[in-house]
């Protein structure tokens, strides 16, 4: 039993497709995250699964049943919106019960049991008589979650549900949503533009960009074996350093004409790039004669620092993560090098690092 998307395409009146040939299989009970930058079609895809937006081409199957023409109420799923979509004139209890009452097929006793159980699950029993305006952002989000839980649907869709919350509350709500999904065994399809949310919550991640699926994989696969430059740059804080490189000899490549890295595989003779994560970039202070970069700025993060530097050639900027007690300051002359743990991308931006292709295409 699963949710299967086959060649899903969405066109409006413009020539360019909003989504093109989206394929995925979402297993029952998994936490599946759709991530990508604003405007990439994430919410559109979610709304098509929900039945709120018609598809232009392709097929959606839920539990082995084609649902292309089914209205939302017949798809046995529930949705949590970014805006919470609460009724301001109803109290918490009635907001959670609204969908159950609208069905008219659920007894009053069952409604009360489901609503009370859902409110208990999200710790809102004591606030059941309050109106939405009397609640904090996190509490409103819990009401929306309780409504989804009370519906007893086995598939829950969430469209950027935490984007309106402050950073600390987002962390707390991430943990609560993840725990709730595991406890109930829900199939949860979750849309976000936040790569941290995706990495910390997902069983599998779909990366969308430029109307197409760039990669589907586990968080570890996405991070370690990104399909291309876009995926590599989207995941990781600070972002990966992408630098031009040329082959020097077997086993060595020259990076940006500034330093060399050992590579244990065949690489193109020209027109390729190297990706170096900031924690794999090595910097040390040196005199001007031996320097290949200078420090531009520094961010102190408590247990570590991020050093932003400008390379001598091409004025390219790079970021390196160093210990919090490392003594660097703006305008220091430094020598930049890297470990051998790097990624390689061809002229089209495709990851050509050894073993990456097997993982990406698995």
Characterize the structure shown.
The chain is an alpha+beta fold and 362 residues long. It folds into two domains: 2-230, P-loop containing nucleotide triphosphate hydrolases (Rossmann fold), CATH 3.40.50.300; 238-360, Nucleic acid-binding proteins (OB fold (Dihydrolipoamide Acetyltransferase, E2P)). Helix content is 25%, strand content 32%. It contains nine helices and 20 strands. The protein has helices at residues 42-50, 92-103, 108-121, 137-150, 167-184, 195-201, 219-224, 229-234, 356-360, and strands spanning 2-10, 19-27, 31-35, 57-62, 65-66, 77-80, 155-159, 187-192, 204-209, 212-217, 241-249, 252-255, 259-262, 272-276, 281-285, 293-300, 304-311, 317-323, 333-338, 343-345. A six-stranded mixed sheet has the order 6-7-8-3-9-10, with helices on both faces. The chain is elongated, with a radius of gyration of 24 Å. The two termini are 21 Å apart. The model has no long low-confidence stretch (mean pLDDT 90).
Total tally of structural domains = 2
Identify the strand order in the major beta sheet.
6-7-8-3-9-10
Task: Please identify the top-level CATH class of the largest domain.
Answer: Alpha Beta
Low-confidence stretches: none
**Shape assignment:** elongated
What percentage of amino acids are in beta strands? 25-35%
Helix content: 25-40%
Q: Return the string of H and E elements.
A: EEEHEEEHHHEHEHEEHHEEEEEEEEEEH
> Counting H and I runs of at least 4 residues, what is the number of helices?
9
Q: Count the E strands.
A: 20
Average pLDDT reading:
90
Radius of gyration: 24 Å
Q: CATH superfamily of the largest domain, please?
A: P-loop containing nucleotide triphosphate hydrolases
- Structural class by secondary-structure content: alpha+beta
GO molecular function: ABC-type transporter activity; ATP binding; ATP hydrolysis activity
Protein name: Glycerol-3-phosphate ABC transporter ATP-binding protein
Domain ABC transporter: 3-235
GO cellular component, one term: ATP-binding cassette (ABC) transporter complex, substrate-binding subunit-containing
């Amino acid at each position: 039993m699963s949710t299967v998307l086959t060649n899903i395409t969405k066109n409006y009146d413009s020539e360019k497709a909003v989504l093109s040939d989206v394929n995925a299989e979402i297993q029952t009970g998994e936490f599946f995250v759709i991530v990508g930058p604003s405007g990439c079609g994430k919410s559109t895809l979610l709304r098509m699964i929900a039945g709120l937006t018609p598809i232009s081409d392709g097929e959606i199957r839920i539990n082995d049943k084609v649902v292309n023409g089914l209205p939302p109420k017949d798809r046995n799923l529930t949705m949590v919106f970014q805006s919470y979509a609460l009724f301001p004139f109803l109290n918490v209890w009635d907001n959670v019960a609204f969908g159950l009452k609208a069905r008219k097929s659920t007894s009053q006793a069952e409604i009360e049991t489901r609503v009370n159980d859902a409110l208990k699950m999200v710790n809102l029993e004591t606030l059941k008589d309050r109106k939405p305006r009397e609640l904090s952002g996190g509490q409103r989000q819990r009401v929306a979650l309780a409504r989804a839980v009370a519906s007893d649907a086995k598939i829950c869709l969430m469209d950027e549900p935490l984007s309106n919350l402050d950073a600390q509350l987002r962390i707390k709500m991430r943990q609560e949503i993840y725990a709730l999904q595991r406890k109930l065994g829900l199939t949860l399809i979750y849309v976000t533009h936040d790569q941290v949310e995706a990495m910390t919550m997902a069983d599998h991640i779909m990366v969308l960009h430029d109307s197409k699926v760039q990669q589907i994989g586990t968080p570890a696969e996405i991070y370690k074996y990104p399909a291309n430059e876009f995926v590599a740059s989207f995941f990781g804080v600070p972002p990966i350093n992408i630098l031009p490189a040329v082959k020097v000899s077997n086993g060595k490549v020259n990076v940006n004409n500034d330093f060399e890295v050992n590579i244990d595989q065949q690489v193109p003779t020209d027109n390729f790039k190297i990706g170096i994560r900031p924690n794999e970039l090595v910097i040390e202070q040196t005199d001007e004669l031996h320097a290949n970069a200078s420090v531009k700025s520094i961010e102190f993060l408590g247990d570590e620092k991020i050093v932003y530097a400008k390379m001598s050639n091409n004025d390219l900027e790079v970021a390196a993560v160093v210990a919090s007690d490392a003594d660097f300051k703006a305008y220091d002359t430094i020598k930049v090098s890297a470990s051998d743990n790097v990624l390689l991308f061809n002229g089209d931006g495709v990851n050509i690092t050894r073993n990456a292709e097997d993982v990406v295409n698995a």
